[in-house]
Amino acid sequence: MMNEMPAHQNNLLGSDSWVLPGAQNDQTLYSWSAVYHKASGNVDAGTTSRQLFGQSDAAFTPDLPSRLDFLQTATRAHLGDAETVARTRTLAGFYRPFFPEEKYQKLITAMRGERPGAIKAELGLSRSGIVSSQTFRVCPECMEEEFKRLGYAYWHTEHQWPSCALCGRHHVLLWCFDPNSAGNSGRIFYQPKGIVPSGWIRPAASAEALQSLMKLLSWSRQLVGDNELHLDEEILRWAYLLRAKQRSWIAFDGTLRLHKLKDSFDSAYREIATLPGFSIAAETDGPNSGFLGGMFRKVVGQRHPLKHLLLLNFLFDGPEDFQKAYADHLAVKADAGVTALLKTLTDSRSKLEAWIRTQAMSVNKAAQELGVPTGQAIKYLDSVGVNREKRPRIVGTEREARLRKLLTEGVERGKIAEELSIRPGFIKDYLATHPELASEWATNHLAKLRARYREQFLKVLSDNPGLPIKAIRRIPANGFQWLYINDLEWLRSVLPAIWSRPRDS
Ligand SMILES: [Zn+2]
């Protein structure tokens, strides 16, 4: 397994006689450094760190190490360039999809540089509460397999992801080792086979929890595996809100029903939250439901990817379901701005209001249709003053059929109201929610009026032969004025004679 390429250009390396070990697929940089350390014959791990990173402590940061430029030069890019090493052999690749492109580049720049403190502080990760964890995780089955195959076992990058609690290959829970709680820290290279059996935390979980953890891992793989993806925090927030709406966790005024959501979230992750590294899943108490409330609000700073992954896995059926919704929201925002998204969030209110105003359906039915409790619908209707008193029902009865027939015929609305004993306001609202019927009514109503005025006018003419137009216009209900405004062509073409009548008596 030894690579023949020597790394001799660095003065600290001293001799050309040693070789750099090859890196395993998915092996962390820390783990590779540990293998190198053993192969180099160095007694002091600090010396190894100086050789590889130019500094005696730099090699012992397993999550987001610094000085990768030095490493690239010292090893002649044996593991690839600094960015590739960061993306595939440290946690940077895990953070990438959750960071804007620019922020990710800043992270990489900091990791290539020589100030390790800059990495976490600048990116706002130190406040997220999980990053300080230096826990190592291993799959016990991978460990045995590798030991047989290679003579050593190594740390897998994927197993160190904060959202990974089980091996995707063997479907068993990962064992955890925390050097701090073992009383060790400082310049020590740990490898899985070097941990004493009592040093491991060996978690247990139900089959249900294992399945849920496997889903969480597929989410992580899908997002981390997409090299182009940099999720936008604002669109993510809208994706959460709009999906919460579909799940009936958004009230009519667009506010989040956080406590209901929290209860459901808690029960989904109750067991998972007891596993090492997942306690954040239970931090949902307090007036804003802990971190959960913050995921739906605009807040400053970087949210930890594990929080996003927990919520995504909770709200969406799977990565495909999410990516479709995300792309939709992105397109809506690009086309019509955030207001369009906000409108989608609150459109249940206008629907409910219209349905009840027009008696299109009962409050019960409307609430059911919108997936909200009837009590909440009533509360909202009362708050905006929509009359939801019980009136004689029209919709769905024989009276509605008669109403539609009369409207189709273009009958005067006042007449219909009288004939069917319906409020005129109801007919107006009914037409407003049935636009096709409304346009049919308008066309036929106009035709009806025209026919009536023409008939009236012809009658007046025949009743008063020879009377000049001025006198005719004084006869009640002569129809001339209406026809003059609405039907002038008819007046001119059908009755050219009237223009030649004497203008004055
Ligand atoms: Zn495994």
Describe this protein's structure.
The protein contains 26 helices and 2 strands. It folds into 4 domains: 230 residues, no CATH class; 106 residues, no CATH class; 41 residues; 63 residues, no CATH class. By secondary structure, the chain is an all-alpha fold. The structure holds zinc ion. The site of zinc ion has 6 residues, from helix 8.
Compact description:
This protein has about 500 residues and is an all-alpha fold. About 55% of the residues lie in helices and about 0% in strands. Bound molecules: zinc ion.
Strand content: under 5%
Major sheet characteristics: 2 strands, antiparallel
The portion of residues assigned to helices is: 40-55%
- Category from helices, strands and their pairing: mainly alpha
* Distance N to C terminus: 121 Å
Low-confidence stretches: 1-12
Radius of gyration: 38 Å
**Largest sheet, order of strands side by side?**
1-2
Number of strands: 2
Order of helices and strands: HHHHHHHEHHEHHHHHHHHHHHHHHHHH
Number of helical stretches of at least 4 residues: 26
Q: What small molecules does this complex bind?
A: zinc ion
Layout of SSEs?
Blueprint: H1 29-40, H2 45-53, H3 68-74, H4 82-89, H5 92-95, H6 101-112, H7 116-123, E1 136-138, H8 140-150, H9 157-160, E2 175-177, H10 207-225, H11 233-246, H12 258-269, H13 290-295, H14 305-315, H15 319-336, H16 338-357, H17 363-370, H18 374-383, H19 398-408, H20 413-420, H21 424-433, H22 435-463, H23 469-472, H24 480-486, H25 488-494, H26 497-500
Helix pairs in contact: 1-2, 3-4, 6-7, 10-14, 11-15, 15-16, 16-17, 17-18, 22-24
Zinc ion binds next to helix 8.
